[in-house]
């Protein structure tokens, strides 16, 4: 057995490289036939532990008094959509890491409308492991909704998210906790050596990260990888933010508005072994539109008159510039353009652009207000285990 003890004054954890249990598939071609044999009996939410992570600190100014107290130390939130071949290897690896921490943990799988055997496998996991809970959606609502449901159901003092495709490495979880123990409230993973295709995944991500950092530079948050799902949050963060659309990647930005300390560390990223990616270039426009909304919330949420005033000023400047340009064409190029035509066309463009902008942003304000009212954008069919 290899035992590692951190020399940090904030963290005292023993890590073991030995498997704490055996989890196998009865038949390789039938992933629904699974069994788990723990090295020790599964522990319930009320049991103590014989190894401490100190401090798993919480900051008490996030509205902690208004949310139920944590009953576990760690919550692992994993959205799942058609990942039947990846679930058993991921669970086995994750179980080994969590057992080595000797903490009171829970694993939340959110089945986001899977059409393969994912739900069957998750049900088996919940039957064999009391620390596993499965939230089953009626249909596919997207990763943001899945994470939101996981956050709402989580009971841990610290919440860790990761993908179900096996590309995130569960062995990075202790490193996230070590960084958090230095006094950070949110630790973001950075896929420094990313194992994805260059043109369809990595290049758009690089461009998107640069655009996001440029648009939100006023928030004080500058990260290298907003899209990495592997993150660690303190409970007060996930219980006090509302996300929708494609905004899960902007959680660090929302968290920054709570005044939290955010850190980023390189994490291991592995190639996908089974299944196909759920991401494509078709998602880029949706991310761009969400970027506009994030920018609006960053600058205009507390002072909308200033935000809309800037838009009105730009539209006015463009309108008068257009009028002047057409006037020059009329008088120096001797084109037959009447003054009335110039005025009407320019006014029509300006008014239309202003109306569309105001309608879109007003709609986002109303949607944000609705989401802040805790009206969820997903429907849960059933909750299994836990």
UniProtKB/TrEMBL annotation:
MF terms (GO), sorted A to Z: undecaprenyl-phosphate 4-deoxy-4-formamido-L-arabinose transferase activity
CDD domains: DPM1_like_bac
Regions of compositional bias (Polar residues) in chain numbering: 21-36
Annotated ranges, domain Glycosyltransferase 2-like: 75-239
Keywords: Cell membrane, Glycosyltransferase, Lipopolysaccharide biosynthesis, Membrane, Transferase, Transmembrane, Transmembrane helix
Transmembrane segments: 311-329, 341-367
Pfam families: Glycos_transf_2 (PF00535)
InterPro entries named among the record's database cross-references: Glyco_trans_2-like (IPR001173), Glycosyltransferase_2 (IPR050256), Nucleotide-diphossugar_trans (IPR029044)
The UniProt record lists the keyword Glycosyltransferase: yes
SUPFAM superfamilies, per the entry: Nucleotide-diphospho-sugar transferases
Chain spans, region Disordered: 20-51
One of the protein's GO biological processes: lipopolysaccharide biosynthetic process
GO cellular component: plasma membrane
Name used for this protein in its record: Glycosyltransferase involved in cell wall bisynthesis
Record lineage: Bacteria, Pseudomonadati, Thermodesulfobacteriota, Desulfovibrionia, Desulfovibrionales
């Amino acid at each position: 057995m290899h035992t590692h003890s951190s020399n940090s004054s904030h963290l005292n954890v023993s890590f073991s490289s030995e498997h704490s249990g055996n989890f196998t598939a009865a038949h390789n071609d039938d992933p629904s036939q699974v069994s788990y044999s723990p090295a020790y009996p599964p522990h319930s939410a009320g049991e103590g532990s014989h190894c401490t992570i100190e401090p798993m600190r919480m900051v008490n100014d996030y509205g902690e008094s208004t949310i139920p107290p944590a009953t576990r130390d760690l919550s692992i939130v994993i959205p799942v959509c058609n990942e039947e071949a990846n679930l058993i290897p991921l669970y086995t690896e994750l179980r080994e890491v969590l057992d080595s921490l000797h903490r009171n943990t829970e694993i939340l799988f959110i089945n986001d409308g899977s059409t393969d055997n994912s739900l069957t496998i998750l049900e088996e996991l919940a039957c064999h492991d009391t620390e596993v809970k499965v939230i089953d959606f009626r249909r596919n609502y997207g990763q943001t909704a899945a994470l939101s449901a996981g956050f709402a159901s989580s009971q841990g003092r610290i919440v860790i998210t990761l993908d179900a495709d096996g590309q995130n490495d569960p062995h990075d979880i202790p490193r996230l906790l070590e960084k958090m123990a230095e006094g950070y409230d949110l630790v973001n993973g950075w896929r420094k050596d990313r194992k994805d295709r260059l043109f369809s995944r990595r290049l758009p991500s690089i461009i998107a990260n640069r655009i996001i950092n440029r648009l939100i530079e006023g928030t004080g948050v500058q990260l290298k990888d907003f899209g990495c799902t592997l993150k660690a949050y303190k409970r007060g963060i996930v219980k006090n933010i509302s996300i929708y659309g494609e905004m899960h990647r902007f959680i660090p930005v929302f968290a920054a508005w709570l005044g939290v300390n955010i850190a980023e560390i390189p994490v291991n990223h592995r190639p996908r072994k089974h299944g196909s990616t759920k991401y494509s270039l078709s998602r880029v426009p949706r991310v761009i539109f969400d970027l506009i909304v994030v920018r609006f919330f960053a600058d205009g949420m507390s002072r909308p008159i200033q935000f809309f005033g800037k838009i009105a000023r730009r539209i006015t400047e463009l309108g008068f510039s257009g009028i002047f340009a057409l006037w020059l064409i009329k008088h120096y190029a001797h084109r037959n353009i009447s003054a009335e035509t110039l005025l009407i066309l320019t006014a029509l463009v300006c008014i239309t652009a202003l109306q569309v902008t105001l309608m879109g942003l007003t709609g986002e304000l109303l949607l944000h207000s609705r989401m802040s009212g805790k009206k969820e954008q997903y429907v849960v069919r059933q909750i299994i285990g836990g």
